[in-house]
Amino acid sequence: MHRSIGLMILTIPLPVAADWRVAAHAERIEPALPISMAGSMSDQIAKRIHDPIHVRAILFDNGKTSLAVALVDSCAIPRAVMDEAKTRIEEETGITAERVIIAATHSHSCPTSTEVFQSKPDASYQEKLIEGIVTSVATTQLRLEPARIGVAKAAVPEEVFNRRWRMKPGTIPPNPFGQVDQVQMNPPVGSENLVESAGPIDSDVAIIFVHATDGEPMGMLANYALHYVGGTPSGEISADYFGEFSRIIGDRWRPKNARRKPVALLTNGASGDINNIHFRSRDFVAEPFGQIRRVADRVASRSLDAVNSISNSRGYELDSILGAKRVEVELGVRRPTAEELQSAERCLSNASGRPLQSLEEIYANETIHLNRYPKTMKLWIQTARVGSVGIVAIPCEVFVEVGLEIKKKSPFQTTIIIELANGYNGYLPTPAQHELGGYETWRARSSYLHKEASVTIVKVALGMLNELAKDAGP
Question: Is pLDDT above 70 for 313?
Fold first, then answer.
């Protein structure tokens, strides 16, 4: 697959709009230790906090209405937790649920927030998450001040790789259900059996950045389609490269003698099949957290280059149109057949009282869980508009093809796809990728929506974006 390497900066010189008010805030949400840590098929216990984890929020207000985005350092968060946070936000601030986007970063080294594989959330920590989300948004409302908003775009193609690969015939091992897939997720690096990646990448970093009217940086909402990076020691909590990006931006973007430290949110784009492993080579920093620092530094540096280019040209958003919509869609669930259920029960008959070990046991347990699921599942699809930027929030690990299709067909000049937003409903492959099989399609609580789910979600999202594009705001 051909890659274009290097820096690409899109500058958008636009006049100053005087009626924006914005604020950003970071609220720490570290847990009491020890605690379950999501991100593996076996439960991991966190015994140390390496770097602080936060809810970072940014609030846009145009004098008529508001839009809040809250980003949580977490692998995934269930809808019930996010819905409760939105209810309390509305009670405390008056900002309605459709005007609040809550998303997880997808760090695999944070406390468990939703039940996945053998990891279970702590109810007291879920409550702490809710309180942290509410506090972060409420604090931004108290700190609103006149601001200027800009839009920038950079590219970081060097750090994104499609992790699904076509392999030489006969080299893909059987999946947990005894079938042979056409693609393999995360094959051995440098393997002679690699043929080609099974999908594209999205190298764009889209950035909404904010300055106070005196020119001091306030915050940014950035978006990059890359799964977590990892490379963290066992049992250590970390915000992964999302948190390191925020730290770097806060330090480097802050002028000397500034009255505030800028708050940067790096939301996860459509990266359900994208990670940071260069499968053709062994280009990886081996020491703990080394790869996280490298990736974060590159993404932050490119982002600041793009932002500074526009800032120096004094270009900002032309209009202060702000809007949001959300639709609750009902999608089919891939539930097991009676025969599959019986097979799963047989597989688990000798595993009572111990952690599950093999993939067959782990997915047999997932089959038992999915048998209790309803035939359909309701989930929120949310869209928003900040000036000339469209935002789509989806509660799934969205395949890159889905995000690229929305971006291509969007009526907005810049469109941001935020995954793992407002709930967690597993992977979202395209129908064609479902046919290829592979880990992301294996039926489990991490992948259970109907094979055509992405088609419905794209249609709904584009419909709302088109409505927002025609709306001049309240």
Answer: no
C-beta of residue 462 within 8 angstroms of C-beta of residue 406:
yes
CA nearest neighbour of 270 among 102, 127, 122, 458 = 458
Beta-carbon contacts of 414 under 8 Å, excluding residues fewer than 6 positions away, are 151, 153, 206, 388, 389, 390
**Residues contacting residue 135 through CB under 8 Å, at least 6 positions apart:** 27, 55
First to last CA, the chain: 46
Does the predicted TM-score (pTM) go above 0.85?
Answer: yes
Query: Per the omega criterion (within 30 degrees of 0), is the bond before 34 cis?
Result: yes
**Angle 413-308-142 (CA atoms, 0-180°, nearest 5)?**
80
The number of residues making up the chain comes to: 474
User: Which residues have C-beta within 8 Å of that of residue 174, sequence separation ≥ 6?
Assistant: 180
Nearest to 108 by CA among 160, 43, 38, 32: 38
* Pair 38, 73: CB distance under 8 Å: no
H or E element at residue 275? strand 274-275
**Considering just the CA atoms, what is the radius of gyration of the chain in Å?**
22
Residue type, 258: A
Q: How many Å apart are CA 442 and CA 451, to the nearest integer? A: 11
Whole-number Å distance between alpha carbons of 202 and 273: 11
What value does the mean pLDDT of the chain take? 93
Distances, alpha carbon 409 to alpha carbons 101, 134, 404, in Å: 22, 34, 9
Pairwise CA distance, residues 103 & 75, whole Å:
10
Query: Residue 8: which of 151, 154, 150, 152 has the closest Cα?
Result: 154
pLDDT tens, 61-73?
999 999 999 999 9
Strand partners, 32: none
Q: What is the spatial distance between Cα 37 and Cα 114, in angstroms, rounded to a whole number?
A: 10
pLDDT at 312 over 90: no
**What does DSSP say about strands 414-419 and 48-49: parallel, antiparallel, or unpaired?**
unpaired
- Residue 194: phi, psi to the nearest 5? -65, 135
221-240: pLDDT as tens digits: 999 999 999 999 999 999 99
193/437 Cα distance (integer angstroms): 18
Task: Give start and end residues of each alpha helix (H) in 253-317.
Answer: 290-312
At residue 19, does pLDDT exceed 90?
no
For residue range 423-458, list pLDDT tens digits in order.
Answer: 999 999 999 999 999 999 999 999 999 999 999 999
Say what the pLDDT of residue 12 is. 36
